[in-house]
């Protein structure tokens, strides 16, 4: 797409994007980190990657046979 545009058109698009971005609300990294940590800690008790999946709800566990390579 950029190959079909002149340098002036590309600069105009970049300027429009920067005008949109200048109005984006910014927050300090420390605030975002604290919010992310609390969010993760709040959801961690129900996270199957941390807690594990109970055997009765695990579709990949059980006596379904197996594969034997001979």
How would you portray this structure in words?
By secondary structure, this protein is mainly α. It has 3 helices and no strands. The chain has helices spanning 7-22, 29-43, 48-51. The chain is elongated and about 65 Å long. The model has no long low-confidence stretch (mean pLDDT 86).
Assign an overall shape.
elongated
Element pattern in H and E: HHH
Amino-to-carboxy terminus distance: 55 Å
Estimated share of beta-strand residues = under 5%
What structural category arises from helix and sheet content?
mainly alpha
The tally of helices reads 3
Please tell me how large the radius of gyration is.
26 Å
Percent helix, as a range, is: 40-55%
**How many beta-strand segments?**
0
Mean pLDDT equals 86
How many strands, which pairing sense, and closed or not: the largest β-sheet? none
User: Which blocks of ≥5 consecutive residues have pLDDT under 50?
Assistant: none
Task: Write a concise keyword list for the protein shown above.
single chain, 70 residues, mainly alpha
């Amino acid at each position: 797409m950029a190959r079909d545009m002149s340098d002036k058109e590309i600069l105009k698009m970049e300027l429009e994007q920067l005008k949109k971005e200048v109005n984006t609300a910014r927050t300090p990294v420390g605030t975002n980190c604290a919010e992310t940590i609390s969010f993760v800690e709040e959801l961690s008790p129900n996270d199957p990657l941390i807690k594990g999946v109970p055997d009765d709800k695990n579709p990949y566990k059980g006596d379904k046979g197996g594969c034997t390579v001979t």
